[in-house]
Amino acid sequence: MSFKNSIVWLYFSSPKNFYPLAGKLIPWFTWLTVSLMVVGLYIAFFQAPPVLSDQKEYYVIIFIHVPAAWMSMFIYIIMSMYAFIGLVWNVKMSEMMATALAPTGAMFTFLALWTGALWGRPSWGAYWVWDARLTSELILLFLYIGFMSLQSAIDDPRRAARASGLLAIVGVINIPIIYFSVKWWNTLHQGFSVQPAQTQQLMDPAIKWGMLILAIAFWMYTIAVVLYRVRSIILERERQTSWVQELVGGKA
Amino acid sequence: MSEIAEFFYFSGYAWYVWGSYGVTAAFMVIEVIVVIKGRKSMLQRLARMARLNKNDNE
């Protein structure tokens, strides 16, 4: 990394400097979310073929199920990376980002399970089965809930961040288990949806693009919501500093 | 059946399809409302605290 870049990173690792930057970025990510969602949903409902091989019309759930499941795992990885940076280098801003990511990650995990249940019922005949993919995704939901409850149980924010950060890092082991579960075990859940080699040619491009665009839309949504949430977290944790005092004092 | 009704009927899979999309949309909208409200109440709380501090100092 060049010198100039590392200066930029250092600059924005200060909550005081990150707060206004986040505020400026939120509208951009909001617009990206809305426009990508419109395009993605249009492809899902009007461009993609009505049925997918043996899957009947209900397969349209794929367009939110797969992106939600991707986000549930992706957010967890990002969250534990922030937790790790916070733990090792004592970067406060990093701890706050991990805290801000958890609720949205938990939401996407729940949505992956929910949409999966509603897809499983017509295609397998059951809302829930204890197969490796479903079970490990459920554990992911518990990890998010554990992370959040641990944080709210400890009053001191530094100690809360350290304890929950450790939990997040240990829990990363679950991510490859979820991802490869369909390969390692005999699961009722179908295999990889998007695979580099052969499958990709078999899959209709409209399905692939719809899924991809909605995944990016969910991603942009996550960034917008997390930046919004982290601003509140910054205000709370930095409430004793002069810049927050000035900011809220001016509004009173 | 009209085209619109047919679209919502979804060949009889309406509950599965709209149950998925509806709950997803609801959660995302609710989360946005929650973070906006959270920020508002945080700002109010901090402003109140700032006012109290000011009064103490006077």
Number of DSSP helices of chain B?
2
Total domain units of chain A: 1
Structural class of chain A: mainly alpha
Series of secondary-structure elements of chain A, N-terminal to C-terminal: HHHHHHHHHH
**Percent helix of chain B:** over 70%
**C-alpha termini separation of chain A:** 43 Å
- The tally of beta strands of chain B, per DSSP, is 0
End-to-end CA span of chain B:
74 Å
Beta content of chain B comes to under 5%
Q: Which class best fits the helix and strand makeup of chain B?
A: mainly alpha
What gyration radius of chain A follows from the Cα positions, in whole Å?
A: 20 Å
Please give the oligomerization state of what you see: heterodimer
**What is the residue-averaged pLDDT of chain B?**
90
Q: Ranges of chain A with pLDDT <50 over ≥5 residues?
A: none
Global outline of chain B: rod-shaped
Q: Identify low-pLDDT runs of chain B.
A: none
Residues in helices of chain A, as a percent range? over 70%
